[in-house]
Amino acid sequence: MGAYHILVVDDDRGAARLIGMLLERQGYRVSVVYSGGAALDAAQADPPDLIILDVMMPHMDGYAVARQLRALPTTAHIPIIMFTAKGLADDKAEGFEAGVDDYLTKPVRPAELAARVKAALARGTSGVSPAPEDCALADAPLRSLIEQAADLLRSARYAVALTGAGISTPSGIPDFRSPRSGLWEQVDPLEVASIYGFRRNPERFFAWIRPLARLIAEAEPNAAHLALAQLEQMGILKALITQNIDTLHLRAGSQVVYEIHGDMREATCVECFRTYPTAPFLEHFIATGQVPRCQHCGGVLKPNVILFGEALPVEAMQAAQRAARECDVMLVAGSSLAVAPASDLPLVALAHGAHLIIINYEPTFVDDEAAVVIHDDVAHVLPCLVRLLEDEQR
Ligand SMILES: [Zn+2]
Hints:
Elements: E1 5-9, H1 13-25, E2 29-33, H2 36-45, E3 50-54, H3 62-71, E4 80-84, H4 89-97, E5 102-105, H5 110-123, H6 140-154, E6 159-163, H7 189-192, H8 195-200, H9 202-218, H10 223-233, E7 237-242, H11 248-252, E8 257-259, E9 262-269, E10 275-277, H12 279-288, E11 301-305, H13 314-326, E12 329-333, H14 345-351, E13 355-359, E14 372-374, H15 378-393
Parallel strand pairs: 1-2, 1-3, 3-4, 4-5, 6-7, 6-12, 7-8, 12-13, 13-14
Antiparallel strand pairs: 9-10, 9-11
Helix pairs in contact: 2-3, 6-15, 9-12, 10-15, 13-14
The structure holds zinc ion.
Residues 269, 271-272, 274, 294, 296-297, 299 line the site of zinc ion.
């Protein structure tokens, strides 16, 4: 692997060049830009291993740049050190909220700069591809399992992933079908979150789903989502089947995604069946709890998530079944395979001769038939799996 590439962003050209020179002296490859807009362009065109970002810049300040970098799939994982004359605790808090990994205060102290840069690169990115000494690869038995999984994926002709609630719990979204999630403590799920319950009492359904809708609206993709998106970009994963309704896979950059339990992007009027994008009324609903209604007929709008007792979306389910039949490796990540018919998909894959890789905290009913089983955190394991495969592609 060549020298680490560091992007330095500062409208103070003298400061930017000084930092660049100090870093070049330590053997890093350095690019220097003088505005937030140029930083976004440069980071997307040639994603660096680290970004050093000034706060106070005209037009777009460092916080805005950091937030945009975090929102873009190609740059979401790049570590950022904010470099600034501002050293107040509130400013630092704002930086960390914007997704910054570390903070340096001006004036430049070469030894501190060197140490923080080295540490940030060793920790690796904000998710994907951590340095080996800092990830699951440091644990020998775990490393051996991850290597086996990497071997299978490397030689796969058509690999697909199947994900469940466990992939989104590191993003703060509870498993809403799990009795332990707390979402079921005061209600009977089959009554509230079934299509019959919805028709009988939509107000009760919306009161129940409101906290979950808020969590989903505020959640960000985590290292596991980003790793799966990267496996697709690397040409290894051909499709991703998910039981989740939170759209985090798409927001992480995955392209071929079959959402077999529906999603929160659209809602359908229960009277006239017109569909609406949920985005325009979601914020209002979360703020007020008011039941969303059809602009045309006043009917209740039901989010296009699959409730208990409802048929699964035909197209997504057919695509998922086809992928399960055609794949030669199925990577199950963050699903305990407790909910049918998603739980049938690994059986379909096995019946057609595919190998299973299972990464999940809890055991599943097909563990015995899987080629590799890793009972660990998906957000810990998947980035390391990517790292192994990436090292070979270099
Ligand atoms: Zn209507």
